[in-house]
Amino acid sequence: MPAIFAKAPGKIILFGEHAVVYNQPAIAVPVFQVQAKAHILPLFNSPAGTIKITASNINLDDEISHLDASNPIARAINLTCEQLGLARIPAFHIQITSTIPVASGLGSGAAVSVAIIRAVSAFFGHPLPDEDVNNLAFEVEKIHHGTPSGIDNTVITYAMPVYFIRNHPPQPFAIAKPFHIAIADSGIHAQTGQVVQGVRQRWQAQQDVYESSFQQIGKITEQAKQCLEAGNLSSLGELMSENHRLLQDIGVSSSQLDDLVQAALHSGAHGAKLSGSGVGGNIIAYADEATLPAVQQALLDAGARQVIITRVQMP
Ligand code: PMV
To answer: Is 100 in the pocket of ligand 1 (CB under 6 A)?
Structure first.
């Protein structure tokens, strides 16, 4: 059995986070500057069934048998082995590394799952098709929060821009004209599950108000899809900023995220919004290529820990 290597990109949600949990559409794109990787080496001298896991980013160096079944890494490995229907699992060592910041809306959990599922299935000589990888990664996402929409695992598995509606097959769509996005990390960690749960509680208390916000976000997402498909980016920035205002309304922004959005707008970005679950994590800003260095500097001056510039385009 040869050594195996698999990787998966990060992602950003351009439009529609949170509303997507309530069946509205969302748009997400892969971010190739950050990635999760899984390497597998056979352990020839260990008994069958031995699975050693090293994930240096989270200081994990242990055997799977010592981990709780709800550990997302253990779950991704076990689900893959179950899917393959293996009667006997030859011993192996999986090493996981990632440059995707955790709990910041860049899809680190889903990317680690996808890399693991791809590596484990390839190691056993049965690389799984994207559809199966996506379904298994979605099962692992449920550990991170109970009601994931599935957008993270979908965009990361297919590694292409997706227009996504919950419980529907992913819809790839064409981005007619490439453009650049600055991604600024607030450095504040937020657990997606807790933020989604908070929205759910407020939605239960004020269903009409929240449904109206979700519907408005859905409309913005549809408009953005049309702009992107037509290569008409003139209103993209305004749509982003409108989406951010609606995310403020549903209580998932924060003063730090709002400050970063304002810094981007004041330095010449056409629009900006938080991306992902919010409260912490990243904001994204759309700016012309010539303006990006000023936007990047303004975001760093406003306290961003890191600013990634990504080009959004078809693979
Ligand atoms: O994992 P994050 O932080 O990018 O957030 C996921 C997006 C949400 O819409 C908030 C939740 C979901 O399951 O779609």
So the answer is: no
Between the CA of 17 and the centroid of ligand 1 the distance, in Å, is 6
- Which residue among 113, 134, 196 is best mutated to probe the pocket of ligand 1, counting the most ligand atoms within 8 A of its Cβ? 196
Which of ligand 1's atoms lies nearest the C-alpha of 106? 4
Q: List the one residue out of 160, 140, 138, 132 whose CA is nearest residue 150.
A: 138
Is there an atom of ligand 1 within 6 Å of 192 CB?
Answer: yes
How far, in Å, is the centroid of ligand 1 from the Cα of 252? Answer: 11
Other C-beta atoms lying within 10 Å of the C-beta of residue 111: 30
Q: Following CA atoms 102, 108, 109, 113 in sequence, which dihedral angle do they give, to the nearest 10 degrees?
A: -150
Phi-psi region of 232 (alpha: psi -120 to 50; beta: other; left: phi over 0): beta
Predicted local distance difference test score (pLDDT) of residue 3: 83
Q: Please give the model's pTM, rounded to 2 decimal places.
A: 0.94
3-state secondary structure of 30: strand
Of 3, 24, 5, the closest CA to residue 13 belongs to 24
If pLDDT is split at 50, 70 and 90, which confidence band does 300 have?
very high
* C-alpha distances in Å from residue 40, one per residue of 11, 151, 205, 256, 265: 24, 27, 48, 40, 45
User: What Rg, from alpha-carbon coordinates, does the chain have?
Assistant: 20
Beta carbon of 17 within 6 Å of any ligand 1 atom: yes
Measure the CA–CA gap between 150 and 113, rounded to whole angstroms.
Answer: 13
| Residue 101 Cβ contacting ligand 1 at under 6 Å | no
* Contact between residue 57 and residue 111 where contact means Cβ atoms under 8 Å apart: no
User: What Cα–Cα distance (Å) separates residue 272 from each residue in 48, 88, 210, 245, 287?
Assistant: 52, 51, 22, 10, 9
Q: Which atom of ligand 1 is nearest to the CA of 16?
A: 9
Q: Indicate if ligand 1 lies below 6 Å from the C-beta of 141.
A: no
Active site residues: 152
- What is the percentage of the chain residues whose pLDDT exceeds 90? 90
Q: Which atom of ligand 1 is nearest to the CA of 13?
A: 4
